[in-house]
Amino acid sequence: MGELRRSNEELEQFAYVASHDLRQPLRMISGYLGMLRKTLGPSLNEDALTFFGFAIDGARRLDRMIVDLLEYSRIGRASGTRDAVDLGEVIGDSLRHLEVATAEVGADVRVQSGLPVVTGDRSELTRLFQNLVGNAIKYCAPDRPPRVEITCADGGEDWVFAVRDNGIGIGPDDLQRVFGIFQRLVSREQYEGTGIGLAVCRKIAEHHGGRIWVESVLDQGSAFLVALPKSGMPQPVRE
User: Fold this and answer.
1) Structural domain range at position 56
2) What integer pLDDT is reported at residue 239 of this predicted model?
3) pLDDT digits (tens, 9 = 90+) for 135-152
4) Are residues 64 and 90 in the same domain?
5) Which band of pLDDT confidence, cut at 50, 70 and 90, is reported for residue 2?
6) What is the number of other CB atoms lying within 10 angstroms of the CB of residue 28?
7) Within this chain, do residues 50 and 96 fall inside the same structural domain, yes or no?
């Protein structure tokens, strides 16, 4: 238990460093670069302006990565909430957060009715499905309208939720790698993001005593499946 306490203390320290000691200098770098570009703008040639743009964009992307890593570190620790959570309401909340993105690409999102109630952390489960549906919308194929279907099946001891899409799909060699932290399978020029969203999903699923996996065919679409125990999330470990 002493080792667990030390690990928690180290994680708390990391959270402080990531949220303050690292982010504040990055804001200063980005801010002063912007001021320099504005002040020197008339005297800079096109290449110099481009280099300033690269530097500012790099600082902003690093800040976003720090924020995402901080979020990842807090999963399972922000609260000890264990409530009865209606997954229909959770997915409804997730879709409301994604209304703009859905409208921009004209995605057709369909949700099975009568989804079950599970025991868990409502905020984390909302983030889980928001990430999965958000990815399904983001990684849409350019030659067909995006379609997303959210269903649930009885898996015996678990409820098995599926988020299926008709997007770009994932190659067989990347089906496990996709859940790693900062793993990107496509270039940033094609699709924005830090590559931590699915790692967050995996950690949330595991925190609830479940698991997540993906079935996919490249250029045809993917199905992300989440198994959550009917018995509810495990009791937190206490010292």
Assistant:
1) 1-74
2) 42
3) 999 998 989 999 999 999
4) no
5) low
6) 11
7) no
Is residue 235 included in any domain, yes or no?
no
Clarify whether residues 107 and 215 are in a common domain.
yes
CA 140 to chain centre: 16
Which residue, 33, 59, 31, is CA-closest to 44? 33
Residue with tokens 């679409």: 221
pLDDT of 77 higher than 70: no
pTM: 0.77
Most confident of the ranges 19-23, 32-36, 127-131: 127-131
pLDDT (mean) for 111-121: 94
Please report whether residue 239 resides in a domain: no
Q: Report residue 175: phi and psi, to 5°.
A: -65, -30
Query: Which of 74, 105, 121 is the last residue in one of the domains?
Result: 74
Mean pLDDT of 196-202: 90
Check whether residue 20 and residue 118 sit in a common domain.
no
Chain centre to alpha carbon of residue 43: 42
- 204 shares a domain with 163: yes
What is the predicted pLDDT for the residue at 183? 67
Which two structure tokens, joined as six digits, stand for 220? 């045809």
225: phi then psi, degrees, rounded to nearest 5: -115, 135
Which residue among 26, 57, 74 closes a domain? 74
List the alpha helices (DSSP H) in the chain.
Answer: 2-16, 23-40, 46-74, 87-97, 99-105, 122-138, 197-207
The pair of three-digit structure tokens given for residue 132, joined into one six-digit string: 């999965």
DSSP 8-state assignment for residue 171: -
